[in-house]
Design a protein that fits this description.
Number of helices of chain A: 6
Largest interface: A-B, 55 and 56 residues
Strand order of the largest sheet of chain A: 1-3-2
Oligomer: homodimer
Structural class of chain A: mainly alpha
Radius of gyration of chain A: 19 Å
Distance between the termini of chain A: 41 Å
Number of strands of chain A: 3
Strand content of chain A: 5-15%
Order of helices and strands of chain A: HHEHHEEHH
DNA sequence: AAGGCGTTATTGAACCTTCAACTTTAGGCC
DNA sequence: GGCCTAAAGTTGAAGGTTCAATAACGCCTT
């Protein structure tokens, strides 16, 4: 036999080029979106994501664990981020009615206003530096690929943050 | 008129699904690749990237600014990361012959060995959780998209880190 | 050759994320 | 009911990144 199971299957040149483009492009893109939100709305990208999820939830409120799961951040991370946001008046935490261990985070009026102001900035950035560059077919491919990535990684590690 | 230039062009449903898949998928993927490198080789993903770039450079050495540019990290960030790596014996810094301001980072023997050991782990992860899930066409699309993203962001901000 | 300006790299503090330990409550079992 | 284990959140410290300020050098002008 000429190969065996322990030999590494390296990436070919095209794959490597794509992989590196993705790495560098993602670094630059996240940097830029984060910077724009900070400069114009005093908000980080993770904070913005939290505002969005809350705004889409009934009553503008969510359990901490559900919130964490929806953006795939660790619970600890969300605790810290929400604590900062609460200090800034964007969000308020309260006990959960049905579960004594639970905590619900809810949008404040100000949090909602900040989100409304920030959303156009964010969407313009996402369009200008990603969506409008891509072509519908290619962008759909990006969606397919990262849906598959998500599925695979969730399956590979169901309790993603109890570690 | 029915629209004007200041109105936000929101993402349609398909675009939004793709965008979120990308965000979440990237979060999970980077987390996982970083974790695997840490657990098995005591190396972060950014550290690994630095080892790779150095190993591909003539003499296994690079100017700090070039190194930073090649992975699109800020100079400050690379200074800190390389400082840690130097303390771990993976890399050594020295003055640059042709430019008195310059500093060159070079791979040590140990750094090279660690890279050789870590590379298969990393590539398997990239394959298992991304490349092998994607299909050649779709993965090529990812490459095209993020090459475009990179070009656009470099053009939009040439001196990416002097800020 | 001196002055001034831009570039290279570093520094330390502030900020954010991760990690491991801990508190509190839920839920099952005897 | 009391005990045990599991789950939800939080905490504080350690680790990593960003930001603004700084030092040191190259280059151009005069």
């Amino acid at each position: 036999m000429t190969t065996n199971a322990t030999e590494t299957r390296w990436l070919d040149q095209a794959q490597q080029r794509s992989w590196r483009a993705y790495l560098v492009g993602t670094t630059l893109l996240m940097d830029r979106l984060d910077r724009d939100l900070r400069e114009q709305h005093d908000l980080s990208l993770p904070e913005y994501e939290i505002l969005v999820r809350l705004s889409e939830s009934p009553g503008h409120r969510m359990r901490m664990a559900v919130l964490a799961g929806s953006i795939s951040h660790s619970r600890s991370r969300v605790t810290h981020t929400v604590a900062r946001m609460e200090k800034d008046g964007l969000v308020i935490r309260g006990a959960c009615a049905s579960d004594g261990r639970g905590v619900e985070a809810a949008l404040t009026q100000e949090g909602f206003s900040v989100l409304q102001a920030a959303a156009p900035t964010h969407v313009e950035g996402v369009r200008r530096f990603l969506v409008d560059l891509a072509g519908d077919e290619d962008f759909a491919a990006v969606g397919r690929v990262f849906n598959a990535v998500t599925d695979k990684l969730v399956e590979a590690n169901p309790d993603a943050d109890i570690r």
